[in-house]
Predict the 3D structure of the following.
Amino acid sequence: MPDSTQSPLAQLTLTQVRQQLADKSLSASEVTEAVLARIAATEPRVQALLSVQAEEARARASALDASGPDAGKPLWGVPLVVKDVLATKGVPTTCASKILENFRPVFDATAVARLKDAGAILLGKANMDEFAMGSTTENSAYFPTKNPWDLSRVPGGSSGGSAATVAACQCFGALGTDTGGSIRLPASFCGIVGLKPTYGRVSRFGMVAYGSSLDQIGPMTRTVEDAARLLQVIAGHDERDSTCINAPVPDYVAALAQRTDLKGLTIGLPAQYWDKGLAPEVAEACGLAVKQAEALGAKTVPVDLKLSEYAVATYYIIAVAEASSNLARFDGVRYGLRDKSAQSLLEMYVKSRTRGFGEEVQRRIILGTYVLSSGYYDAYYRKAAQVRRLIRQDFEAALKNCDLIMGPVCPTTAFKVGEMSDDPLQMYLMDIFTISANLAGLPGLSLPVGLGHEYGLPVGLQLTGRALDETLLLQVAHVLEQHVAPTGLPSL
Ligand code: GLN
């Protein structure tokens, strides 16, 4: 019997599969069956998905096949997965929390609706840290996802399910969300491309809010071109999200062909990102990628992000403050779980929330309530908001002297399941290089730059750019992708 776990069809890139669907060398049903077989073969080990909509996907594929390829639909017949924090009509949307166990929204998030309008097939919902709070996907209330490169390791988080499902070739791309690094970190740990767009580039309508001033939805794919194709579809103004920027969406895919080297570009290297306790294999792989960028014509300059050391503290005040307010809506009345044993309204709130929220979510609600309370607001929240503005100014100043900034995504490669789960502060430090982009609202991309020499695990390089300049990040990543050490796919 052919080994369906190594299905060459499932290993195609999104760009390749959409081409073969368009020219009818593959049907949507064939493609859908290939990824469903791959899910059946690998999911018991990887556990990337909270739910799989196999029958709905099959029905949609046959309907698409019956009407035939549509050149106006850029994702026609392409099976994709979305993180379970995005509302999907009639399909469970749990945020990996018990409190939303049976929640099925009556509408689609704008990003999901745009994927569907573009002809994509929704295959399933990806596991995540509960309400996107975490860096490993171990905070899921259901089960932890495993890293497809080494099943004893974490895939990163909070979009760990999205990263693992893409790396395991269970789909051709996924959507994740990033509040402080949750697209870029798991992309880096799983050896795929992850792009956090500029704040406001993609509508957050229908994304269950964590830190509303930080959250962004973005693509997670096996190649840079695939990421450009997904961003193309989901980006752009949406009147249902007042923070969504009303600016034209460039042709990201066409722009990729316009650059074949990095001549004329200046890359900023912040000392703060390169000096600080990097694992030697991360320093080496990212350092080689920068050398490659120089060989391709880029000039590198030092830049000073002097407030970086305050980024983690600032983020963990602002994010938890916003979370405590956003999560107040889960009260046992309007959505999901309700404790029926309670004798009074207050008791019902308390019991429903105590049973429904996991430990990390409760910790953050308590922290957030504290930093917003009247006696402490000025000392914590107001101060953090001020430092946030200074961090943004730091980046704006740095990006006057360079076109983009490069550094590692994370100080280490993927660590063992359970290694840090008892130490929340240690875990928060994993976000040290990613959270500034969210505080500043800037786009950030994680590009795989080969396997580390120590554990043979993927290493991610981070590219941070000017607001709304996703085009340059994608172009540079696309050029580099063809010259850095190949990462390949995990053998599962
Ligand atoms: N790890 C960070 C946190 O726990 C970032 C999470 C995210 O980006 N959603 O808040």
Summary: The pocket of glutamine is lined by residues 132-135, 158, 178-182, 210, 319, 431 (CB under 6 Å). The domain at 1-492 is CATH 3.90.1300.10 (Amidase signature (AS) enzymes). Residues 1-5 have pLDDT under 50 and may be disordered. The chain is about 40% helix and 10% strand.
